[in-house]
Amino acid sequence: MRAAAIAKGAIISAALAGALVYAVDSISVRVRAAHATATSPYETLTFARVLAIPEKNKVEYQVDVQNPEQSVTCVHALFPHDAHAPCWYVKRNIDKPIPMAILQNFD
Fold first, then answer.
1. How many Å apart are CA 59 and CA 68, to the nearest integer?
2. Cα of 40 vs its chain's centroid, Å
3. Does residue 55 form part of some domain?
4. What is the pLDDT of residues 35-91, one digit of tens each?
5. In principle, which of 11, 32, 35, 64 could form an S-S bond with 41, CB 3.0–4.6 Å?
6. How many domains does the chain have?
């Protein structure tokens, strides 16, 4: 019985700590966004859209002809805020090509 109480307390403590970290992160973003300074929490990143096109035994990479550049707004925070992904996550995944699938019609 004692182990169950300890586990329950640990889970509740972890949830409260996570909620506190998110709240502090959210307040930080809101305060920085409210004051027009150089510490704006939002950044717009522009990058080339690269497509990964599978061919027989290899993958060919091409810049998307229809939409060669894409802009993404991200937030300098630990967590997503205002429907924007964190910049640390966007910068980590910005160089990954978009995988394309070739669908064949077998009629």
1. 19
2. 18
3. yes
4. 877 778 999 999 888 888 888 888 888 888 888 898 999 999 999 998 999 999 999
5. 32
6. 1
Judge whether 107 lies within some domain.
no
Query: Quick one: tokens of 49?
Result: 């859209």
State the Cα–Cα distance between residues 24 and 22, nearest whole angstrom.
6
Instruction: Provide CB contacts within 8 A for 8, sequence distance 6+.
Output: none
33-44 pLDDT, tens digit per residue, is: 888 777 789 999
Give the span between the Cα atoms of 81 and 30, in whole angstroms.
9
Which helix (H) or strand (E) element contains residue 70?
A: strand 69-75
Residue 84 lies in a domain: yes
Q: Is the pTM of this model over 0.85?
A: no
In a domain, 25, yes or no: yes
Task: Tell me the C-alpha to C-alpha distance, in Å, between residue 27 and each of 22, 44, 56, 78, 93.
Answer: 9, 21, 51, 12, 26
Domain span at residue 53 reads 2-99
